Amino acid sequence: MSHIVFGAPITDQTLKAVARIEGKDVTTFTALDRSRYTMTTRGDEKKEKKADTYLEKLRFADNVNGVECLVFNAIGGHLVLDSYQNWGGSLGSGPYPLTIENGQFGAFFHGMFDGTKESSGAVCYTGIYDIRTSGVGEWVMAWKYTPGTKPPLRCRAEARQKALYREGTKGAEEAWKKLKKDLETGSNYKHHNDGIMCIVGHIGYVDKEGKELDDPTSDTVPRISASMYLYNNNPSS
Question: Which CATH superfamily hosts domain 5-230?
């Protein structure tokens, strides 16, 4: 179970090769170019399926109820794990992916260990969205799974250019507390666009055949996923 990221990184060399095949003479690309192309490759290399298989192995190895979590990086550069929260439950036998390259899926399983009655937590990943100014943004995915409640699974997703949740940021502790409260009392907030950065979260329930359903049944496993990408034109290169 050593692989926690799936898929080949998509770089300028990838886009150059595609341009040559299409007969285009293009040699320089922006982060937005890389992001837009990467969003078309989600189904390539069976990388999402490989991530699915990894999550299934984790879940069976840990043998507890919990949430399967997927992160798809399409920001045009790499994502780095900055911080995380465990409000209920904890990671299983697989770690959080520390670095997810552009075009890769990261995967982890968050379980209801030690008698906890929920799986609840969050991750904050950072990445450069503007190379010209070295602008570092943060992409945050939070979840709360409580079996027997309606809805049993909640999700919050945020994308920000300015630091709010990052380690060492003034007010970060209060921001995490507010996010936790919003997750518990508010509606799902699965799509956040700040004009340049964007994150789209998705809630689903996976059956024994690996098919994702919109509603839970007695034999489905909860899953949240988030696609992180660039939305608007920016000057990075």
Answer: Cytolysin/lectin (2.60.270.20)
